[in-house]
Design goal:
By secondary structure, the protein is of the alpha+beta class. Helices cover 30% and strands 23% of the residues. It has 20 helices and 41 strands. A four-stranded mixed β-sheet has the order 14-9-8-17. Strands 10-11-13-12 form a four-stranded antiparallel β-sheet, with helices on one face. Strands 21-18-19-24 form a four-stranded antiparallel β-sheet, with no helix packed on it. A hairpin with a 3-residue loop joins strand 38 and strand 39. The longest helix is centred in the middle third of the chain and has 42 residues, at 366-407.
């Protein structure tokens, strides 16, 4: 509806918004963001190439300033900002962005590190040889032209495109409500696929049933996929086969999919004994190398990927080279697998082959893209033939007139001499010779040198050649098969001139993907869990070896109300079992716990990893290398109950946890230990009493059953430890005030289950109650943590062997307001042998025990502590 100027027309706002939005969306889709299926170019790219051709910036000629090119594009064809034009021009010149760059740039045109290009006033450019193929025969009426934005000149709607640019160089763009992402391909493979489709045209599907049409398409698609192996990215890389190959096949046959691509990396010896390095020479397409190097370094610093000692970017003009140096104990394949998993060294390229077909966006298959290109090239070749035919016909018409003039030269000269002017001579010649106006004009324009006998011969030869040309072109236009053959010939010539080898390797067999457990290296770590539920793991070497009686180092940055409660020295592949005070158990792989390079960090809330109920807390942690081994799990409670059950019953623990032991209302689970049928267990109480008996005395009970009495407790006493006895072992006992001792196990005779037990440690006001007891060999390293999060690591060889009635020696000197909260031991070979480590956590302490009165206790000497009374047997058993 046309409205006169100055009038007001009521319009519904939703109608106006809908109309305006649709206009805007279609403008973006058609005129800015999406490429045309025929030449594979967006409007701005097409205008840049055409403007450069108009400036004669072809390969033999010199370059011109980019600012001049951008100015011509803006002033003639593209009335938008200069930045988008220059950005598009830069991308067409980047060898890492386009498989076959369309522009030769001089100067800084950016880098794979995402460095910005120099300003357009500093750089120069011209067309590349392959870009000329897109413009070949553009002046031979092969494509339509349209007026530019101000109708002062004309620009091509499309380029003749002798190269299948859309599928060869790919495309990416985001329109309104849609996006395109077409990967680049190898020119030789695409040309072979085009030749195959020309030789095997799709049969007419009219009259075919749907199943026949589908079968025909599947047959053609299968043949094309045998020719086109996959995308060929300018940055190389490796496309994973296997399931990735199937995804690629789906992308080519539906237009949607994804391609998984890895950078090329090799593991090389470093030159020093046993050390290796990973050398990255290719990265996935569109991956920022600098960001990749920074990400690898960050993961190494955060210990998210173990085994990396250094990362260097050694790239230069000769090529890309990133070196990841490994530690001596690191496993190269494991580290490389982790790099694939956690960095962009392995990336997924989305495939969405959307392009404009007759001005409308459409998702296309590989077969459809190639067929549209062939149809377009047939049209271009046909129009070129018609143009050449008309040109040849016009020329032969003139040549025939010139031949007549040479035969009747004297007569023509006489008529010209007798004529008063040129118009009279032209009219007289037309009437006398019976020739057309164009022929007479050519005769009048003929130079005298054309009257020689030699020139007559040339005119005859030209006439004969024109007759052959006209015959060939008429034959070509009269036979569609010959037109397709001409297209194929152009295609093969283009392949021979510009075809090259693939850069991207395609693995036919992807190989089995490593699980996370396989990717994680075996590593010795210390896992700590605080009373408030913060868990972390750090390398064993974080805690350096100290002498007995030291004050320790800070093991955690804590709040006033938090202490280290549990500590395990384990292997990263062990399974951690978390037992709560209410008898539930949860499981977690050690490598799933948060790794922290700092021993002072607080850690991560364990409830973020396992769903522990709010009214429960972890009272025991067990590390098991294999839950399916033929062994038992022995559980003990605070009030002296015990049970054994098969370890295999915990092989499949639900994420929400399962019941490990049925408890009395006021009882708590405080210890859990793996054991065998021949094992013996020792239970120790906070007042220093102990009982030792065989596991065989306990009958196998179901997982949800309760326990039986293990020890008869004195008033206000409770169990702090239950451990498995080993031959030639010792009992390590540590009190809250930092005293400890080793006592030979054979000092404790076997007893019946359920008795009062015998003295294991003489408890008094100086020592404080026992906080932990553990069966050890005596050559381990002892790691002790205090309530103030101080951690002391010392060798048990510095702790004396004492009798059952001794109070022990200083293990760790504490401040007056500090207490021991956790005790763990490390295998003596843990830092040399990455295979195994052992560790247990101390029994939980009550609130009053963790925060005693701040009265300073006098520091006794070792001699004062070594008071023993071996002559008096104070055993009190039920025998």
């Amino acid at each position: 509806m046309v409205t006169e100027p100055g009038t007001i027309r009521p319009v519904r706002i939703e109608d106006e918004l809908r109309s305006s939005y649709i206009d805007y969306a279609m403008s973006v889709i058609v005129s800015r963001a999406l490429p045309d299926v025929r030449d594979g170019l967006k409007p701005v790219q097409r205008r840049i190439l055409f403007a450069m051709d108009e400036l004669s910036l072809r390969p033999p000629n010199s370059s011109k300033k980019s600012a001049r090119i951008v100015g011509d594009v803006l002033g003639r064809y593209h009335p938008h900002g200069d930045s988008p034009v220059y950005d598009a021009m830069v991308r067409m010149a980047q060898h890492f962005s386009l498989r076959y760059p369309l522009i030769i740039g001089q100067g800084n045109f950016g880098s794979i590190d995402n460095d910005p290009p120099a300003a357009m006033r500093y750089t120069e450019a011209k067309l590349s040889p392959i870009a000329v193929e897109l413009l070949t025969n553009i002046d031979s009426d092969t494509v339509d032209f349209t007026p530019n934005f101000d109708e002062s000149m004309k620009e091509p709607r499309i380029l003749p495109a002798r190269m299948p640019n859309l599928i060869v160089n790919g495309a990416s763009g985001i329109a309104v409500g849609m996006a395109t992402s077409i990967p680049p391909h190898n020119l030789s493979e695409i040309c072979d696929a085009i030749s195959y489709l020309i030789d095997h045209p799709e049969p007419a599907i009219e009259g075919m049933d749907e199943e026949t049409v589908q079968a025909t398409h599947e047959r053609i698609d299968a043949a094309l996929l045998d020719i086109v192996k996959g995308p060929d990215f300018p940055t190389g890389g490796i496309i994973l086969g296997g399931t990735g190959r199937e995804a690629l096949r789906a992308a080519y046959t539906t237009g949607h999919g994804r391609v998984v691509i890895r950078g090329r990396a090799e593991i090389e010896p470093l030159g020093r004994a046993g050390r290796e390095q990973i050398v990255i020479t290719e990265v996935p397409y569109q991956v920022n190398k600098a960001t990749l190097v920074e990400k690898i370094a960050q993961l190494a610093r955060d210990r998210k990927i173990e085994g990396i000692s250094d990362v260097r970017d050694e790239s230069d003009r000769q090529g890309l080279r990133v070196v990841v140096e490994l530690r001596g104990s690191a496993d190269g394949p494991f580290v490389l697998s982790n790099l694939y998993e956690h960095t962009a060294l392995q990336s997924a390229f989305p495939v969405n082959m959307l392009a404009l077909v007759d001005g409308q966006p459409k998702v296309l298959t590989l077969r459809e893209i190639l067929q549209h290109y062939i149809e377009f090239r047939v049209e271009v070749v046909t129009r070129k033939a018609r143009y050449d035919l008309k040109k040849a016909q016009d020329r032969i018409h003139i040549v025939e007139g010139l031949r007549v003039a040479q035969e009747r030269l004297d007569e023509i000269i006489h008529i010209i001499r007798e004529s008063d002017d040129t118009d009279t001579a032209r009219d007289s010649l037309m009437a006398h010779l019976m020739l057309t106006r164009e022929q007479i004009q050519a005769i009048l324009d003929m130079q005298l040198r054309r009257l020689t006998a030699l020139d007559r011969k040339r005119l005859e030869d030209e006439h004969n050649e024109l007759q052959k040309t006209i015959g060939h072109l008429e034959s070509l236009l009269g036979d569609p098969l010959k037109v397709r053959t001409a297209v194929k010939k152009d295609n093969e010539e283009h392949k021979n001139q510009f075809g090259d080898q693939r850069r991207t390797e395609i693995l036919e067999e992807e190989g089995r993907k490593l699980t996370r457990e396989e990717r994680e290296p075996h590593f010795d770590v210390v896992v700590t869990l605080s009373r408030n539920g913060y868990i972390k793991r750090v390398p064993v070497a974080t805690y350096r070896l100290q002498h007995r009686g030291g004050k320790g180092v800070t093991g955690m940055t804590r709040r006033e109300d938090d202490v280290v409660r549990h500590m395990l020295a384990v292997d990263t592949h062990d399974t951690l079992l978390f037992f709560t005070d209410r008898g539930k158990v949860f499981s977690l792989k050690c490598y799933q716990t948060p790794s922290d390079a700092s021993r002072t960090s607080r850690g991560t809330p364990v409830v973020n990893l396992i769903p522990i109920p709010k009214d429960e807390h972890v009272t025991a942690m067990v590390a098991v290398s294999d839950l399916r081994q033929n062994a038992w799990l022995v559980l003990a409670t605070r009030l002296g109950e015990i049970k054994r059950t098969s370890l295999t019953r915990f092989a499949n623990i639900r994420s929400s946890g399962i019941i490990a032991m049925d408890l009395e209302p006021h009882d708590e689970l405080i210890a859990a230990r793996p054991a065998t049928e021949d094992s013996q267990v020792m239970i120790v109480t906070t007042k220093g009493m102990s009982v030792r008996f065989p596991v065989a005395n306990l009958r196998d009970r179901s997982r949800t059953a309760g326990g039986v009495r293990a020890i008869r407790l004195k008033p206000e006493d409770h169990v702090i430890s239950m451990d498995v006895v080993t031959p030639e072992a010792r009992l390590l006992a540590v009190s809250k005030r930092g005293f400890g001792k080793l006592t030979r196990i054979d000092s404790f005779r076997k007893q019946a289950r359920g008795g009062k037990g015998v003295i294991a440690f003489r408890v008094d006001e100086r020592t404080g109650p026992l906080v932990a007891a553990k069966v050890v060999q005596g050559n381990e390293d002892l790691v002790v943590a205090s309530a103030k999060a101080l951690v002391n690591r010392t060798s048990l060889s510095e702790v004396r062997d004492l009798g059952r009635y001794a109070r022990g020696v200083w293990i760790m000197r504490l401040d007056a307001d500090d207490l021991i909260s956790s005790v763990s031991t490390l295998s003596p070979s843990s830092e040399q042998d990455p295979a195994r480590m052992s560790g247990t956590s101390a029994a939980p302490s009550t609130e009053s025990e963790i925060h005693p009165d701040s009265v300073e206790t006098p520091e006794p000497s070792d001699e004062e502590i070594l008071e023993e009374s071996d002559s008096t047997d104070q055993d009190n058993t039920n025998g």
